[in-house]
Every structure is written in structure tokens, then in C-alpha cells.
Specification:
Layout: E1 2-4, E2 15-21, E3 24-31, E4 35-40, H1 47-51, H2 55-58, E5 62-68, H3 84-98, E6 103-108, H4 110-121, E7 126-132, H5 143-146, H6 160-173, H7 180-192, H8 199-203, E8 210-216, H9 221-230, E9 235-243, H10 251-261
Parallel strand pairs: 4-5, 4-6, 6-7, 8-9
Antiparallel strand pairs: 1-2, 2-3, 3-5
Helix pairs in contact: 3-4
Length: about 260
């Protein structure tokens, strides 16, 4: 099922639709031409909230496939824990639905965890992977982010405006807008239960990987260096003057990085 000029689409060749995969009625958008590039948004965000500024810079080189994951944006939630394993399986099913054998995958935060899971568990479906602002294990986060008692004093936490933007987007797009508080709590619980990947799993990644973090991100710069060392051939980019919530908005820095990395 697809239609033209829906949602946040911009280009005349853009299409959007829903794919019924793994019990989900999953929303997606496709535009541009070239090698397929899947974009996976952050937690409690949507395609546009994470990537509105970046997409127009990518469609000239790629067939950009924006995905709204379980419970996010226009994709209704279902009675299933939204683990990175489950969400990665949904992305693979969507690629099947679209007839895409292999794609570049760029993910932010939650989406980066899904991108890494694709690299670990579905290596035959990814051309390359760009995980932005996501650790490979919980201790890669700054201590103040791991301890709720320190959240109030942290300068790394999302701002009141960030939370307002997420709530507005959820209310406007979600098939169940009244569930925002419960959904936020469930996402926080899922994040708290993330265990990451073993050294052996990361060492087994065969796709080219570009790890991207901000210098004032949730993820420590030291952990970014660890990720680079654990994933064979990985590259690391640390964006200056960049927080977690602004990482995908640094268009001036990301566009040349992606142009050089993605073939």
C-alpha cells in the first residue's frame, strides 16, 4: 500500500505507505534515486523529527527509505517488547516488502541500536552502517545519564523544548495519541534493559561502519574510540559542539562525512 505526497514528504517522486510486517502496520516513506539508504529515527521521535534537515541533502545520491518503528510516528504500537532484535526484524521485513536486497543503514539513538543489530544479525542485508549517538553497552554512557538522580543537573539531557517537540509529534502523528506518557515510560524501560553486544559479536561485523557521536553526547568520546577498536575497520567521527539531541541536525558536518563514506 502506497500513496504520493503524504506525511513529511517533499520531493515530487516521493511515496509513502504502510507495510504489514510481523504484526505491525509500519509506516515508511521513500524518495530519491540511487543506492538504498534506510533512516532509523531516535526514540520517541519520527522520520521528520530526526531527519527533516538531512533528507533533502541525501535524496540526490540515494533512494532514501524513512521508517517509523513500532509505536513511533504513524506506526501503531503492538503488544510486543520493542527490543533492537525485534525492530531489526521489522526493518528486514520492510526491505523484503520493498524488494530491496541490501541497503545502507543510518540510525540515530534507538535507530542506531537497530542499525547495529542489523549489522550483527543480518549482515547480508546491509551495505554499510552509520550508528549515531548510541553505545554498544550501557557503560558507554556518561554516569550522569545512567543515574536518574543526576538527570536534573546534567547539561546533556534533552531540553524542555526537546520533550515538547516529541510530545507534539506523538500527539499529531500517533494512531493512539493518548498513550504518550505510557509510551515514554516503556521506551525508558527498554533503554534501561539494553545490554548491547559482546566483543565477539562486534568483531564479527563485516559491513563498513562509521560511528558518529557528539562531543557533548550521551555516549562518551572514550566509548566511541572503544567502538572503533571493537568493530573491524570502523571509522569514528566526533562532531564538535554537538549534543545528543543535535547530532542529526549538524547538517554542515554530516553531509560531507556521509558523502565520503557511503558509496
Amino acid at each position: 500500500m502506497s500513496s504520493r505526497r503524504e506525511g513529511g514528504l517533499r520531493g515530487m517522486d516521493a511515496t509513502s505507505g504502510y507495510a504489514d510486517v510481523n504484526g505491525l502496520h509500519m509506516y515508511y516513506e521513500v524518495q530519491g534515486e540511487g543506492s538504498p539508504l534506510v533512516l532509523l529515527h531516535g526514540g520517541v521521535q519520527s522520520i521528520d523529527l530526526s531527519f527533516a534537515g538531512l533528507i533533502p541533502q541525501l535524496v540526490g545520491r540515494h533512494r532514501v527509505i524513512g521508517v517509523e518503528l513500532q509505536g513511533h510516528g504513524r506506526t501503531a504500537d503492538i503488544d510486543r517488547k520493542s527490543t533492537s532484535t525485534a525492530l531489526a526484524g521489522d526493518v528486514v521485513a520492510l526491505l523484503d516488502h520493498l524488494g530491496v536486497d541490501r541497503a545502507h543503514v543510518l540510525g540515530f539513538s534507538l535507530g542506531a541500536a537497530v542499525a547495529l543489530e542489523l549489522a550483527v544479525s543480518h549482515p547480508d542485508r546491509v551495505r554499510s552502517v552509520v550508528p549515531i549517538s548510541e553505545p554498544v553497552r550501557p557503560d558507554g554512557m556518561h554516569e550522569e545519564l545512567r543515574d536518574p538522580a543526576l538527570h536534573a543537573t546534567s547539561t546533556r539531557m534533552p531540553t524542555a523544548q526537546d520533550f515538547a517537540d516529541m510530545q507534539e509529534t506523538y500527539a499529531r502523528l500517533s494512531p493512539h495519541p493518548e498513550h504518550f506518557t505510557e509510551f515514554m515510560a516503556a521506551q525508558a524501560q527498554n533503554a534501561a534493559e539494553l545490554t548491547g553486544w559482546s566483543d565477539e559479536q562486534l568483531a564479527g561485523i563485516t559491513a563498513p561502519v562509521l560511528v558518529v557521536i557528539g562531543d557533548h553526547d550521551f555516549v562518551t568520546v572514550e566509548h566511541g574510540a572503544l567502538m572503533k577498536g571493537l568493530i573491524p575497520g570502523a571509522q569514528l567521527a566526533v562532531l564538535p559542539g554537538t549534543t545528543h539531541m543535535t547530532a542529526t541536525k549538524r547538517i554542515d558536518l554530516l553531509v560531507p562525512l556521509l558523502a565520503a563514506f557511503l558509496d
